[in-house]
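Listing S7. Sequence submitted for prediction.
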Amino acid sequence: MKVRSIIAAFDSFKGCITAEQACRAAAEGIHDALPSAKTVQLPLSDGGEGLVSCIKRFLPMKDIALKVHGPLMEWVDCSYALSMDGRTAYMEMAAASGLPLVPEDRRNPLLTTTYGVGEMIADAIGRGCERIVMGLGGSATCDAGEGMLKALRDLDCRTELCSFLVACDVNNPLYGENGAAYVFGPQKGASPEQLPFLDRRLRDFAAMTEGEGIASKELAHHPGAGAAGGLGYAFLAYLDAELRPGIDILLDIADFDGLLRDADLVITGEGKSDAQTLMGKLPFGVQQRCRRAGVPVWLLSGAIDDAAQELQRHFSLVRSINENDPRPLPELLQPERAMENLKRTVSNCLNEYSW
């Protein structure tokens, strides 16, 4: 078979190489093995933090800078991206209410707020924006979006003039043992003693929302309602938002399905692939599109943990780029070494494959 086109669609290898570096190394490996093949480099993000910078690789946009109230209601510098026609804004809630904005010794989700997220939204709508794409992830909050909604009220924001598409990569409900408080509260600074109180606060907010006829009881259990400390619930109940996996949003923007029409192979990967990869991480989102299009997809990651061979059931080839390199981990994590190993692995796999 004559190879026409191979797509390199990588996530970053966190703490090691960027998605751009991974795609470049893979493209060099493809060229070494198959000089005549067309290579498409598609650096991606899983749709959480980094969503906006990833989208900016595909669409021309202008940056909007503003000051908003941060997680502890202090003023912070914030930014989002606006399409050139001014109709669509691309945001990350972490820009206004992210965990890195709170010093470690002050992290307490009983006190943090999403008020700044509402200010970002109000700013965009005030500029005439008709559609907002919001990435959830990396939040310092567990307020079910109450802060965001208060800001939208305080600023008399006409949210009915705008539609909302939310990138959400968790399936947790709003409350309960798998909800926002118990699952994500500890990483935001909540003590074990605070978790039941946080969970009760989320339940009370849902009960109030239901009592006002805004949402049904089932909405609190909608997959993703517990994302970003329950901010997913506020978007669903009050802003009629659509929640979708971030990777699907990015693949649509990149016209991945269109690229697949001319592709013979897709190579994807991340820092470490294991059972969690199949729970909606970037390589699995890529694999799902490839499966529907009938295009084989390889998974080449820094480390592979696949004792149950689940990954091998979904990908045509699964391999660690470091499996034949005996050097210690700190050396393997050096960007130059990782890129060389990825390039070599791609080239070797293509030479081994019977085209």
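Caption to Listing S7: primary sequence and predicted structure tokens for the chain studied. The two ends are 5 Å apart (CA to CA). The longest strand covers residues 61-69.
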